[in-house]
């Protein structure tokens, strides 16, 4: 099928130019988010915005600009895109290889224009670099992406990177197979137009996927800020209550046990009065870290307020939870918090309450609170367990 490629490609390249400009604005607006990768993705799109007019002026301006420089800009765009992904995923950006490859590509393009003038070999050099960067991007995502792997942007970015790598290899093979060797990239063939269209879609499509990743990261950050206590990183009171209610529904559905520990640091006012409020904050943070290290994956630690914390232990009966509580109490007693204010020691009191069928989370908290009160009244630095309601005691006997 022979078609006039300029008629098809001109509006496509214009659309790509406008899309890249729009993506530049979107990414520039996201720079203040502080998320890693934004600056590189922005540069990748700026490079596309610069490249397309140079391509459009081919034959009007010198080839050294419209071919050699323009393809160098495209290579830089691909390198920036990969570096953005690497930064976003907390991985090394490998500039040495990215720039080394880009320089090799520019040298090869210059040689196959001014040494031996061969369009197929130029296309091969350009496509080889593009395909290598796309493959490396897909591999980076597969290995290091930590978000939801069934999310649209994860699939989009990984899938598109693979597709574009294949498209570029195909284009290089296609140009290599043509006889006589073509001298104009605007070859009047359906395949060429299709492959050029795919090429024009690469950066806007990959950047769109990057924007979706940034969007998810911002959403996760906002949720974390809403659900976590800023100082200790434990769940906020509100989120702990929501989690507790959810755990109760699961315990009711699965008939698995659920136990709540209410933990209060003893004589915390004295720590504040002796070492200062900032030292008290450090003790709270160190305590939350210490508890976090002792919990299993599904256990949840929340800060109810002040120096009072709660731990939800799904799948743990009262006996198992008592062991956990005792271990935490001993660990707290031995815990030395060394800060710029000196060395603080502290102890904790714990109230333990096992969930009883039919009970809501407020009722479970009330019983754990009564047990905590008993532990405090009993002299502190101890664990007290709420007894089962008499009717449940009878059932479990
Ligand atoms: N450093 C610091 N102190 C806090 C924070 N929230 C609450 N407090 C302090 O924690 C102390 C709690 O004191 P109390 O309620 O009397 O309890 P306590 O001294 O731990 O005594 P018992 O609980 O009876 O053992 C108060 O001095 C609060 O100001 C916080 O975020 N940081």
From TrEMBL:
Gene Ontology MF terms: diguanylate cyclase activity
Enzyme class: transferase
SUPFAM superfamilies tied to this protein: Nucleotide cyclase
CC annotations in GO: plasma membrane
Name this protein carries in UniProt: diguanylate cyclase
GO BP: any one term: negative regulation of bacterial-type flagellum-dependent cell motility
The EC number(s) this enzyme carries: 2.7.7.65
One Pfam family recorded for the sequence: GGDEF
Catalytic activity reported: 2 GTP = 3',3'-c-di-GMP + 2 diphosphate
Keyword Membrane assigned: yes
Domain GGDEF: from-to ranges: 256-388
Keyword set, alphabetical order: Membrane, Transmembrane, Transmembrane helix
Record-annotated membrane-spanning stretches: 6-30, 42-61, 67-90, 97-114, 120-142, 154-173, 193-214
Gene3D superfamilies attached to this UniProt entry: 3.30.70.270
